[in-house]
Design brief:
alpha+beta
């Protein structure tokens, strides 16, 4: 068949169209397949990374949970220590009263028990006879043997008197006892004092809920009975022990209830995963060091999965943002074909990076400077704590002096804790936001507290330190006590630092007249006869973390003039 040139051209064009269409279809199919493969790959990568991140978060959180358990343990031991001191003090007072009859002794023991906030206090003889603040005398060999089992002078254990009750009511008590210096009344030689306490009151001394109410903490004894728990709600019905509870759940890692019991008997610290009511959870078990108990913390695994999901979402968003940015840059490069635009873009990116780097360095420098400066604030109350502790040891037999020193140590410790809390809350420093919390305070008490905090440094340099008030008629004021203390203590500490030994420092407080009812203007002046500040530097004193640098100042150790920081 003879074809014209036009027809041949048309066939060629049609062939090219068909081949181009095939290429387009193959290209589109390839792109579609790659998209599907990418989606599947991203999905599995997401699952893998989610699992890895969740595991890492869990491992980190387990360490945090153990630290929380240690904190809870300290709270509980502190409560037990307070109770031991109470009952030991009562036994000592009974001995010192030198009663000639047990009936008179029981009357006094009953009065003492009411002040100790306990259910009952008993004195135990070396024959196993007990004398109770409830005016009872009886043989109790079981309690006597229990006291003898402990190797330490102080002991604590759970007591369940349900078996002695006709009613089906759980009667649990916490018995705290102590071996005392023996004394005799009516031929009865007393060697132990034991206090009976409500076991439920321990719950108030432990933060039993965490992680937004999803997690909880418990304390069990070596037999698995709950001493502190969210289940410990004074229920009249029988409460299950720890081993019975976990025996109903599915434990991870191939562990059994007997394995858990063995670990607890061996006082091991361990963690495990288990399923409770269809919910996967993480449990951390930590032995307490002071008493033979265990801290149990449980948190849903879903909390960590949510955290890992949030991290992955942020990473995904970042990757998408980066890909979009790259695509835009490529489009601009191909559209403009201009080296000039490319250079501008690079210069812009470089400037942005330099600006971001400068901001980062500035923020890090501010943080470092702030922490260095805080060491100055922290040093003052620390010196007070150390000084009054030494004085308390020196006058340990003088109860009134020791109590006074302990009060001053408490004031300094509270101020130190406030400073540390501010250091930990770096987000407020970064954002430039400082919360002002105004409460009713007594100005005289505040000044007395400040004096106690700085007194150790003043005495160390043998300085004269005076606090005067002028026309102060209203001592009860509303203010942020922490901020006022920070400012005054900082100024006074600088005065102490930059004043030679034997110098004089004075604090003058004046109440200024005001026309507004319910409002007060107070002027605080801190004056010293130290090295002072030059006139040239005065214009810079309100700059953050500013310090005058000269040969005189350099003789002193690090001490920053931190005006304008509050």
């Amino acid at each position: 068949m003879n074809l014209s040139s036009k027809e041949k051209a048309k066939l060629k064009i049609d062939k090219n169209i068909r081949e181009t269409s095939k290429k387009i279809r193959r290209s589109n199919l390839f792109i579609f397949i790659m998209i599907i493969i990418t989606i599947i790959g991203v999905y599995y990568a997401y699952k893998i990374f989610s699992s890895l991140i969740t595991r890492r978060i869990v491992q980190t959180s387990i360490k945090s949970m153990r630290e929380i358990s240690r904190h809870d343990e300290q709270s509980i031991v502190s409560g037990l220590e307070h109770r031991w001191i109470d009952i030991e003090g009562i036994a000592k007072e009974i001995k010192q009263d030198k009663f000639t009859s047990t009936s008179d002794m029981l009357k006094q023991l009953n009065i003492k028990a009411e002040t100790a906030e306990c259910l009952e206090i008993v004195l135990v003889t070396d024959k196993g006879k007990i004398f109770s603040s409830a005016y009872t005398e009886k043989e109790d060999q079981e309690l006597f043997k229990k006291c003898q089992e402990f190797t330490k002078n102080r002991f604590v254990f759970r007591n369940d008197s349900s078996k002695n009750s006709a009613a089906d009511i759980r009667k649990e008590q916490l018995l705290l006892g102590s071996e005392i210096e023996p004394f005799t009344i009516d031929e009865n030689r007393f060697i132990y004092v034991v206090g009976y306490y409500e076991i439920g009151k321990l719950t108030k001394e432990l933060k039993i809920e965490s992680y937004g109410g999803e997690g909880y903490s418990s304390v069990i004894d070596k037999d698995g009975f709950y001493l502190v728990s969210i289940y410990n709600n004074n229920n009249l019905f029988e409460r299950e022990d720890f081993y019975t509870v976990i025996g109903k759940e599915k434990l991870g890692g191939g562990l059994t209830v007997d394995d858990v019991r063995k670990k607890i008997q061996n006082r091991e610290s361990f963690s495990l995963e288990y399923v409770l009511d269809g919910q996967e959870r993480i449990m951390v078990c930590t032995p307490m060091t002071e008493v033979d108990w265990y801290c149990i913390m449980s948190v849903p695994l879903s909390i960590y999965q949510e955290q890992s999901s949030e991290i992955l979402q942020m990473l995904t968003g970042l990757i998408v943002a980066v890909l979009i940015t790259i695509a835009i840059v490529i489009i601009l490069v191909f559209r403009n074909h201009s080296q000039k635009n490319t250079m501008k873009l690079e210069i812009k990116h470089r400037d942005e990076l330099e600006e971001a780097l400068a901001l980062t360095e500035q923020a890090n420098k501010a943080k470092t400077t702030f922490l260095n400066n805080m060491s100055h604030d922290i040093r003052t109350p620390m010196n007070a704590i150390i000084g009054f502790t030494s004085l308390a040891k020196t006058h340990i037999d003088n109860k009134e002096r020791v109590i006074d020193y302990l009060d001053k140590i408490t004031q300094s410790s509270n101020h130190l804790l406030s400073l540390i809390n501010d250091v930990l809350d770096m987000s407020r420093i970064e954002s430039g936001k400082v919360n002002i919390e105004e409460k009713e305070e007594n100005l005289a008490n505040m000044l007395h507290s400040i004096r106690n905090i700085v007194q150790a440094d003043v005495n160390a340099k043998q300085m004269k330190f005076v606090i005067d008030t002028v026309n102060v008629t209203d001592e009860n004021i509303y203010c942020d006590k922490l901020r006022v203390n920070q400012i005054l203590i900082n100024l006074i500490s600088n005065a102490i630092k930059f004043t030679e030994p034997g110098g004089t420092i004075s604090v003058n407080i004046t109440q200024k007249p005001t026309k507004k009812k319910g409002r007060g203007i107070y002027e605080f002046r801190v004056k010293d006869n130290g090295i002072g500040i030059t006139k040239e530097f005065l214009k810079e004193i309100f700059e953050p973390f500013a310090r005058e640098r000269n040969s005189t100042v350099s003789r002193y150790s690090r001490n920053w003039i931190r005006n304008g920081n509050y």
